[in-house]
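Onboarding guide, step 5: your first structure request.
Type a short instruction followed by the sequence, for example:

Predict the 3D structure of this protein.
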Amino acid sequence: MDITRPRPRHDTLAGVACGIGAGAVWGLVFLAPALVRDFRPLDLTIGRYLFYGLFSILLIAPHWTRLVGLLGRKEWRGLVWLAFTGNVLYYLLLASAVQLGGIAMTSLVIGFLPVAVTVVGSRDHGAVPLRRLAPSLLLAAAGVLCIGWQALAMPAADTVGRQLLGLACGVGALAAWTCFAVNNARWLARLQHVSFHEWNLLTGVVTCGLTALLLPLAWALPRVPQPPSAWALLIGVSAGVALLASMVGNALWNRMSRLLPLTLVGQMILFETLFALLYGFVWERRLPTLLEAVAFVLVALSVVTCLAAHRAPATSVPASG
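The system replies with structure tokens like these:
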């Protein structure tokens, strides 16, 4: 069934605020692989999502019986697909991209998410047509190109092959999260009887189950021995990313997904790129270059013009059916 109704201004403002908050905490996930570079991306992925699952199980336990009764086989299959594409596969590829190609390159690739999600979301019923979003998309593309030009201009410390492999992992992460963002927004539009917070917790439980399947693989693959202090750092980083990015960030994102149309949801992903770059500057103890500063301005203008395009009376809730 299609649901079309005017979107109140306060819903748009609240949705944008949630999008900014989600981007602020999600930007931290780009730093995590750099903090624990001595460990494999698989180790960090398992650590993050085991903690995410543990937190989710503790919070959802009192409501488990009621929620199970609200979901059918189709919904559980949807949760498995979302958990795999948006969590396990995405973060495994993103962590690999950061360790192989660096934070700047990975931010560049993930920066194309708004364009990808907005283009896909433009097919939804009641969505703002692409011709009205053209200025916003062009500004976003220009900002990302500035970031990319800067990343390519920086001297590469690794081999070309390693850089290309990192780029491939980044593109894979882009595809995985585009799939997640679109399908997650559509599921939230359908399941009005399940709160955005409950949906996040259910996703965490399913993600934990999928992550547990990776434990035998992590155990079988050879690893470089690490001291107890390194393992303590991995545990701390994994728990911190799970709490901030997976619990707080996902809750804000799900709330935003119910307040904004999918074409505007895509634009909100830009804040993840901006915060990732900001944290990268702090980590590298440097100021942004001229190109990076221009990219910040272009991305901000992209979001503003996209907001303006959604102020028309025709704006409506994403399709559900």
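Each response can be followed by summary notes, for example: Residues 1-6, 313-321 have pLDDT under 50 and may be disordered.
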